[in-house]
Design brief:
The protein has about 550 residues and is α+β, with helices and mostly antiparallel strands. The protein folds into three domains: about 15-115, Beta-Lactamase; about 125-315, GAF domain (Beta-Lactamase); about 320-540, Phosphatase 2c, domain 1 (4-Layer Sandwich), CATH 3.60.40.10. It is about 35% helix and about 25% strand. The chain contains 17 helices and 21 strands. The strands form four sheets. Strands 8-7-6-11-10-9 form a six-stranded antiparallel sheet. A five-stranded antiparallel sheet has the order 2-1-5-4-3. Helix 13 (about 370-390) packs across helix 14. The longest helix has about 40 residues, at about 285-320. About 40% of the residues are buried.
C-alpha cells in the first residue's frame, strides 16, 4: 500500500511481462527514457512523455506528488524507495508497484521499475496473516492489522465493521430482518491510496446504518459469506456524496463480505473488493477470507473485551478518587498522591474535613496490600473516616471506631492511619496514630523534627483505644503527614526514608517565592523511587 517504503515488490500471481515496465528520470523527476515496455503498460507514447515531469504523466492522484518528492529525496540520498501506488495504465487503472533506485552516483538519474499488481494469495499468506494480526489488545490497531494483511495481497480494498451497540453498550446485536444494522467502520484500506485519502472517503469511526438489502447485512444476518458485484444503492450513494467518492464507488467489480463471529457472538463483518483488472473472488478466495475472518474475529473480540474492562476499571478508579477538599480559610494545605504501577488508585487515602471554629481534621491512611482489593478497603475507610471526623470526634475516638469497622470487614484487612485536628486559632493540633509513620514538623529556617506521637496498633487488630498527643504549631511551621511508601522501600529502611524526607522538606519550604504546593511537588519527586507501594504526602500550615 502507499507509503510502505523499503519493502520488496509485492509477490503476485504468475509473472506477466506485459505488466512490467522500466523507464528513467533525471534528478528533478523529468522522464529521460520511455521504452516500449513503459508505453505498453501505461499507454503513453514516448514523444508525449519524454521531458515531462513524472507527476504530470503518471503520479497524478491525490497525495502522489508528495510521494514522488519523497522518492526523489530517497534516491538522491543513495537509497531505494518502493511503494504501491494507484495510477492509470493502458486499459484501466489500479495499483502499480513502483521501485525507484539510483542509476549511478548522486545526480545521475533514477531508474523506475513499475509492475501492475493484482491480488493473489500464496500458500503461506494465511500463516503470515495470522502472525501479523492480534499483536496488541488495542481495538483500532487490531482492525488496522486485519486490513493491512488483506490489502493489497488479497483485495484492492477492505473495510472492517463492528456492531455499534456491541461497542457502546456491550450488548450482542444480531441483525434482524426488517430492522437493518447499525455498525461502526473501524478502518478501511484502498490499495495505492495514502491513508489520508482513504480516511477522507471512508472515515474510521463512522457509524452507518446497513439496510436489509446490503450484502454486508446479509453476511452478518446469515453468518455466511456473500459475493456480489456492486454496492447497494444506499452505500454507493453515501460514498458518492464525498469528493471523489463517485469514482471510488464504481472502481470495483467484485465484492466479498464475510461475518466476524467469535465465541458464538456476531461482531460485525469484513468487506473486501477487487478492481476490474483483478480476478473476481472465487471459491478459494471465499475459503481464505473465512479463515482470515475467524482469526480476525477472535483478535478483535479480545481487543474489544480488553477495551471494555479497561474502560470499566478507569470509570471505577475515577469514582474512587477523592474530590477536591474544602480547606478552611485560615489553613493552607497541599497534597500529592502517586499510586504504584499503572493503577489510578490503591490503598492510600487522605482527607481534609473542615470543623467548627476554623479547625480542620487531616487524615492520611494506608490500607495494606495493592490493587483493587486494597482500593476496596480504602474507599470504605476513607468514607467512614470522613463521616466520623465530621461528627467532631477526637482523633483517638475516630481511630477507635475505624478499628472496630476494619475488624468487622471480610477477610480481616489491616490499615494504618494518622489523624490530626488542627486548631488554627490556638496554633496547635491533636494527633493520634494507628501503626502509621510519625508526622514531621518543619520549622521556619529549615529545621525539622519528628513528632512524638503514640504509635498505636494498625486498624483491624481490635486495639480498642488510641492515645493522642497535643502538639504546638509555631508561626510558619508546616506539618507533614505521609504514608510509608514515600519513605520506605525494599532498599531503604523507614528510618532512612524519614531522614530523607526531612532533608528534602526543609530546603523545599525555604525556597524563595515557592508555594506550599510547589514544595509538596518537590519533596514528592525527590523521594519518588521505583518502590512497590503507593505514596502520599500532605503538608499543612496555619496562614500568618
Amino acid at each position: 500500500m502507499a507509503g510502505d517504503h523499503g519493502s520488496a515488490l509485492p509477490r503476485r500471481r504468475g509473472p506477466d511481462l506485459a505488466a512490467l515496465a522500466a523507464f528513467t528520470l533525471d534528478s528533478g523527476g523529468r522522464v529521460t527514457s520511455w521504452p516500449a515496455s513503459a508505453e505498453r503498460l501505461f499507454g503513453h507514447p514516448a514523444p508525449a512523455v519524454t521531458g515531462h515531469d513524472v507527476c504530470d504523466v503518471l503520479m497524478t492522484g491525490p497525495g502522489q506528488r508528495e510521494l514522488a518528492g519523497e522518492a526523489l529525496a530517497e534516491v538522491a540520498a543513495g537509497r531505494v524507495w518502493t511503494a504501491t501506488v494507484s495510477m492509470a495504465f493502458a486499459g484501466g487503472s489500479g495499483p502499480v508497484a513502483l521501485r525507484w533506485e539510483p542509476l549511478g552516483g548522486p545526480g545521475t538519474g533514477v531508474l523506475v521499475i513499475g509492475q501492475q499488481v493484482s491480488p493473489a494469495i500464496g500458500p503461506g499468506w494465511l500463516r503470515d496473516a495470522a502472525d501479523r494480526i492480534g499483536t496488541t489488545l488495542d481495538l483500532l490497531r487490531t482492525a488496522r492489522e486485519v486490513a493491512d494483511v488483506a490489502v493489497p495481497a488479497f483485495a484492492d480494498t477492505a473495510a472492517i465493521f463492528v456492531f455499534e451497540r456491541l461497542l457502546a453498550a456491550d450488548e450482542p446485536a444480531s441483525p434482524q430482518a426488517g430492522h437493518g444494522a447499525v455498525v461502526r467502520r473501524l478502518v478501511a484500506r484502498l490499495a495505492g491510496q495514502p491513508t489520508a485519502v482513504t480516511d477522507s472517503l471512508l472515515p474510521p469511526g463512522e457509524v452507518l446504518v446497513l439496510g436489509d438489502d446490503s450484502p454486508s447485512f446479509r453476511a452478518m444476518h446469515t453468518r455466511s459469506p456473500v459475493l456480489f458485484d456492486r454496492l447497494d444503492e444506499v452505500s454507493a450513494g453515501r460514498i458518492a456524496r464525498r469528493p471523489g467518492g463517485r469514482d471510488l464507488a464504481s472502481s470495483y467489480a467484485s465484492f466479498l463480505s464475510v461475518p466476524l463471529v467469535a465465541r458464538g457472538v456476531a461482531l460485525g463483518c469484513a468487506t473486501f473488493g477487487r478492481a476490474p483488472q483483478s480476478p473476481d473472488f472465487g471459491p478459494a478466495d471465499v475459503a481464505a477470507a473465512g479463515e482470515l475472518a475467524s482469526r480476525a474475529a477472535v483478535c478483535i473480540d479480545n481487543a474489544r473485551l480488553y477495551h471494555r474492562e479497561r474502560r470499566t476499571a478507569f470509570a471505577l478508579q475515577r469514582g474512587l478518587l477523592p474530590g477536591e477538599p474544602r480547606v478552611p480559610a485560615a489553613l493552607e494545605v497541599a497534597h500529592r498522591y502517586l499510586p504504584v504501577g499503572a493503577s489510578m488508585v490503591g490503598g492510600d487515602w487522605h482527607d481534609i474535613v473542615p470543623l467548627p471554629g476554623g479547625r480542620a481534621a487531616l487524615v492520611v491512611g494506608d490500607a495494606m496490600g495493592h490493587g483493587p482489593e486494597a482500593a476496596a478497603v480504602m474507599v470504605q475507610l476513607r468514607t467512614a473516616t470522613h463521616l466520623l471526623a465530621e461528627l467532631d470526634l477526637p482523633p483517638g475516638e475516630v481511630l477507635a471506631r475505624l478499628d472496630a469497622l476494619t475488624a468487622g470487614m471480610p477477610a480481616s484487612p489491616y490499615a494504618t492511619c494518622m489523624c490530626a485536628v488542627i486548631n488554627t486559632s490556638a496554633s496547635s493540633c491533636v494527633i493520634a496514630g494507628a501503626g502509621h509513620p510519625p508526622p514531621v514538623l518543619a520549622l521556619p529556617g529549615g529545621a525539622t523534627r519528628v513528632l512524638s506521637v503514640p504509635a498505636g496498633l494498625p486498624l483491624g487488630l481490635s486495639a480498642g483505644t488510641f492515645e493522642a498527643a497535643q502538639v504546638s504549631l509555631p508561626p510558619g511551621a508546616t506539618l507533614a503527614l505521609y504514608t510509608d511508601g514515600l519513605a520506605e522501600s525494599r532498599t531503604r529502611p523507614l528510618e532512612d526514608g524519614i531522614a530523607a524526607l526531612r532533608d528534602a522538606l526543609g530546603p523545599a519550604l525555604e525556597q524563595p517565592g515557592h508555594s506550599l504546593d510547589s514544595a509538596c511537588e518537590t519533596v514528592t519527586q525527590a523521594l519518588r523511587q521505583q518502590g512497590g507501594d503507593d505514596m502520599t504526602l500532605v503538608l499543612a500550615r496555619i496562614r500568618q
